Amino acid sequence: MSIKIYIDNHSFHYEMENLTRVFFPNEKLEVLRGERPNETESLCLITSKTAEGVECALITDKYSSKLEKSLQPDTPEDEQEREMAILLYRLLSEYTGLTPLWGILTGVRPIKLFRRLRETMGEEGAKEYFKQKLLVSEEKTALSTLTERNERLILNTSTPDSFSLYVSIPFCPSRCSYCSFVSQSVEKSFKLIEPYVELLCREIEYTGQIARNLGLRLQTVYIGGGTPTTLSPMQLDMVMSTINRSFDMTNCREYTVEAGRPDTVTQEKLKVIKQNGADRISINPQTLNDEILKAIGRRHTSEEFFAAYDIAVKSGFDHINTDLIAGLPGESADSFASTLNKIVELDPKSITVHTLSMKRSSNLTQQGAELLRRDFETAEQMHRFCSELLPKNGYEPYYLYRQSRMVGNLENVGWSKKGSEGLYNVFIMDETHSILGCGAGATTKLRQPNGSYIERIFNYKYSYEYLKGFDEMLKRKDRIGSFYDEYGF
Questions:
Q1: pLDDT score of 28
Q2: DSSP letter assigned to residue 423
Q3: 403 and 108 Cβ atoms separated by less than 8 Å
Q4: Residue 128, exposed/middle/buried by CB under 10 A (0-12, 13-18, 19+)?
Q5: pLDDT exceeds cutoff 90 at 363
Q6: CB 96 within 8 Å of CB 89
Q7: Torsion over CA of 289, 294, 295 and 297, rounded to 10 degrees?
Q8: Same-domain status, 318 and 432
Q9: How many domains are there within the chain?
């Protein structure tokens, strides 16, 4: 079933569509201009800009509601858009019975917005703007305030010549049911791994030479995926030793390797990671409920997670991050709370709490609305439990971002002990400095050293494309040099 959004005399279609998707994450949305609904349509939204202001209407075959807001003729476009979004939010909230805690905010980086507001109107002004102008809840405003404070301390350490390195290993032991990353299971792509690693090392060397020629200062390294520990110890050593000899590691402050799947963690691999200088790893159970693990396609048990964590501790890793997911299909708030309590007992330096991107159907039936509301409420309970338990145990939020179709329109939050924040996570979310990306699916994001302009260089998305188009892709990296020639330090 589709929802039709009618656009009348305005250019705010993108925001109206995104806001509608907050309430109906899996319905097909159709944006139309210059038309009007007919009587057979089940749900349509009419968003209009008039001589008097803005107005929105929600119409079904059994329901109709309309709101309008008068505005001065010289009201700026962005203010008109914000007022229209408020009308649409209130209509959809009334119709569905849902009140998303982030209000009309639909963007990926709410903390970046909060920071811009704080710089112009102060922290209290930013908080009031979030609550009054964007309808953000008290609890999410408080979360944003604390996260921005902690982020700012990290951002202030970046200099115009700083950059970070991201290396992609797009392979996993198996594909989880909720996964949206560009990755392939080993069963289907084993023959690609060896040639991929060889070419990846060539790209790393090429990129490292460019960085050296430009005099850039490497701040953080992040090897992600996929699951980097899908590689053999020898392949891991090839990649990491290539990084170490290709880049000047003198100023590198953080070196992370995702050891995400416990079923890929071995003492031999951890020894290689440690010897090559990585000081931060992530071992991710997602949940410690074995029934849920099985249902989402994770080929490991909670017991295997604890075993992998123990091996990492005994291998000398002081900073181990663990990832959890709020809103997994079938998981209750009590089950999530049990997982979080067990993780906190391990006392990791950081814990990242993600929110599931929804895939469950949310058809516009009474049953569908009840399912959606239950998902919202359960995920909200899970995040509230995090906000209560983690600060009591010394954790503070240090970065936050959001994705489309997240359960409850919620967020992903990085929590850490003081001094153990994941620097790369902050730099990439704030777009603080350039990120040089290597590997399939990686994006190089170039940030103007003394400005805000950002330019992207895309690698081929899939590993087989990466192998086939490697030489052409390598040429794209030359843009890094010309970019810095243009914008300089």
A1: 86
A2: H
A3: yes
A4: middle
A5: no
A6: no
A7: 120
A8: yes
A9: 2
Q: 3-state class of 435 per DSSP?
A: strand
The four Cα atoms 487, 480, 475, 182 give a dihedral, to 10 degrees, of: -130
Residues 467 and 334 in one domain: yes
CATH label of the domain that carries residue 44 = 3.30.160
Contact 323, 227 (CB under 8 A): no
Q: Are residues 344 and 458 in the same domain?
A: yes
201 in the same domain as 79: no
Q: Report the C-alpha gap between 481 and 444 in whole angstroms.
A: 12
75-116 pLDDT, tens digit each? 999 999 999 999 999 999 999 999 999 999 998 999 999 999
Do β-strands 395-401 and 64-70 pair in parallel, antiparallel, or remain unpaired?
Answer: unpaired
Query: Is 60 exceeded by the pLDDT of residue 178?
Result: no
| pTM check: above 0.70 | yes
For residues 149-156, give the mean pLDDT. 96
Longest dimension (CA), the chain: 70
Q: Name the nearest CA neighbour of 27 among 43, 14, 13, 40.
A: 43
The 10 Å Cβ neighbour count of residue 27 is: 18
**Quick check: is 14 in a domain?**
yes
CATH number of the domain bearing residue 319: 3.80.30
Residues 310 and 196 in one domain: yes
Beta strand ranges found along 62-107 (DSSP E):
64-70
Distance CA 246, CA 209 (A): 7
Choose the final residue of a domain: 96, 118, 139.
96
Distance CA 447, CA 433 (A): 5
Does a structural domain hold residue 403?
no
277: preceding bond cis by omega (within 30 degrees): no
In 3-state terms, what secondary structure has residue 175? Answer: coil
Residue with tokens 């850039």: 216
- What are the backbone angles phi and psi of residue 347, rounded to the nearest 5°? 60, 50
Class of residue 362 by CB neighbours under 10 A (exposed 0-12, middle 13-18, buried 19+): buried
Among 72, 96, 120, which residue terminates a domain?
96
How far is it, in rounded angstroms, from Cα 444 to Cα 435? 6
* pLDDT for position 358: 62
Instruction: Please compute the mean of the pLDDT values over residues 243-248 and round it to a whole number.
Output: 98
Range of the domain at 57: 2-96
d(CA 114, CA 145): 8
Pair 193, 63 in one domain: no
Integer Cα distance of 489 and 484 in angstroms: 8
Same-domain check for residues 252 and 168: yes
DSSP 273: H
- Kindly give the residue spans of alpha helices, DSSP state H, lying in 24-69: none
Q: What percent of the chain has pLDDT over 70?
A: 92
Same domain, 167 and 295: yes
